[in-house]
C-alpha cells in the first residue's frame, strides 16, 4: 500500500470525539485521553497522526500545543494538525511545538493571499490546505468555514484549489462534509476529478471511510493520503492496517 494513512484524533473539550457531517450537535465521544489514543496508534505501526482542535475550529486560536508536544515526545508520530489557525503566530507556534505540517482551512478560503504568503514563508511541505466542501442545491461545491458552520462568499472548490496549486501548494486536504463521520464511503468521484485537475498536488481524502476497500478505492483514485477517523475508532478498520501504509 503506497497511500499515506492518517489516523485522526479530533479533540473537543479535551476528549476524543467525532462529529457527523461537521455538526457540533451530533457528537460521538470515544475517549477522555487523546494522548493514550495516539500511543495506541503508534504502537499499532502508524507513522502519522491527523490532530484537529474542534473547539478552535469554530472559535479560533489553536489550543492543543501541550497535547501536540506530548504526542511528539511520547510517540514519535509525525503530526499534521490544525483548527483555529488564524494568525502567523499560531502557525509558528504549532511548528515550534513539533508539528510536521499545519492545516489551514477557514483562513485559506477567506484570505487566500495571506495564506499564500505563509506557504512561501514556511515552504510547501509544512502547510496543508484544507478545502472542505459541501455540494449546494445547484450542484456547486461550496466551501463552508468556521468549523463548517457558515459559508463565506461565493467561492467554489475547483476555482480556489487551482489557484492554490498555481501558487505552489503541495498538500491539499479535501473533506466531503456530508460524508464526514457517516461511514457511507469516500467521494471517490470527487477525488478523481481533483487529482486530474491538480497535477503535482498530493491530495488527502477525508470523510466516509468505513473499511479497507474504501482505502484501496481512494488510492486507486490517485489520492496520496487518507484520513481515518470513526471507522478506526470503532474497530471497523483493523489497527494492523496502520502498519501497511506509506510512511
UniProtKB/TrEMBL annotation:
EC number assigned by the record: 5.3.1.16
Domain of life assignment: Bacteria
The UniProt record lists the keyword Manganese: no
Active site: 10 (proton acceptor), 132 (proton donor)
Pathway of action: Amino-acid biosynthesis; L-histidine biosynthesis; L-histidine from 5-phospho-alpha-D-ribose 1-diphosphate: step 4/9
Reaction(s) catalysed (UniProt annotation): 1-(5-phospho-beta-D-ribosyl)-5-[(5-phospho-beta-D-ribosylamino)methylideneamino]imidazole-4-carboxamide = 5-[(5-phospho-1-deoxy-D-ribulos-1-ylimino)methylamino]-1-(5-phospho-beta-D-ribosyl)imidazole-4-carboxamide
Keyword entries, A-Z: Amino-acid biosynthesis, Cytoplasm, Histidine biosynthesis, Isomerase
InterPro entries with a match to the protein in the record: Aldolase_TIM, His_biosynth, HisA/PriA, Isoase_HisA-like, RibuloseP-bd_barrel
GO BP term, pick one: L-histidine biosynthetic process
Cellular component GO terms held in the UniProt record: cytoplasm
First-tier enzyme category under EC: isomerase
Sample GO molecular function, one term: 1-(5-phosphoribosyl)-5-[(5-phosphoribosylamino)methylideneamino]imidazole-4-carboxamide isomerase activity
Intracellular or extracellular location(s): Cytoplasm
Classification via CDD domains: HisA
Keyword Amino-acid biosynthesis set for record: yes
Sequence similarity: Belongs to the HisA/HisF family.
Cross-referenced HAMAP family: HisA
Protein name: 1-(5-phosphoribosyl)-5-[(5-phosphoribosylamino)methylideneamino] imidazole-4-carboxamide isomerase
Amino acid at each position: 500500500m503506497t497511500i499515506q494513512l492518517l489516523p485522526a484524533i479530533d479533540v473537543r473539550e479535551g476528549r476524543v470525539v467525532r462529529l457527523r457531517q461537521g455538526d457540533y450537535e451530533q457528537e460521538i465521544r470515544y475517549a477522555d485521553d487523546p494522548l493514550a489514543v495516539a500511543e495506541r496508534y503508534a504502537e499499532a505501526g502508524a507513522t502519522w497522526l491527523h490532530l484537529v482542535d474542534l473547539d478552535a475550529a469554530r472559535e479560533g486560536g489553536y489550543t492543543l500545543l501541550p497535547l501536540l508536544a506530548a504526542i511528539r515526545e511520547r510517540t514519535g508520530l509525525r503530526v499534521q494538525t490544525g483548527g483555529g489557525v488564524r494568525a502567523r503566530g499560531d502557525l509558528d507556534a504549532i511548528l515550534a511545538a513539533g508539528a510536521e505540517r499545519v492545516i489551514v482551512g477557514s483562513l485559506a478560503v477567506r484570505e487566500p493571499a495571506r495564506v499564500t504568503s505563509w506557504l512561501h514563508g514556511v515552504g510547501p511541505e509544512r502547510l496543508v490546505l484544507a478545502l472542505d466542501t459541501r455540494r449546494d442545491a445547484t450542484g456547486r461545491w461550496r466551501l463552508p468555514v468556521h468549523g463548517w458552520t457558515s459559508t463565506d462568499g461565493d467561492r467554489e472548490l475547483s476555482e480556489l484549489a487551482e489557484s492554490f496549486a498555481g501558487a505552489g501548494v503541495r498538500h491539499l486536504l479535501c473533506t466531503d462534509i456530508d460524508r464526514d463521520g457517516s461511514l457511507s464511503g469516500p467521494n471517490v468521484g470527487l477525488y478523481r476529478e481533483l487529482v486530474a485537475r491538480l497535477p503535482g498536488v498530493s491530495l488527502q481524502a477525508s470523510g466516509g471511510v468505513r473499511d479497507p476497500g474504501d482505502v484501496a478505492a481512494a488510492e486507486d483514485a490517485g489520492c496520496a493520503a487518507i484520513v481515518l477517523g470513526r471507522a478506526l475508532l470503532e474497530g471497523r478498520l483493523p489497527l494492523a492496517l496502520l502498519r501497511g501504509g506509506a510512511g
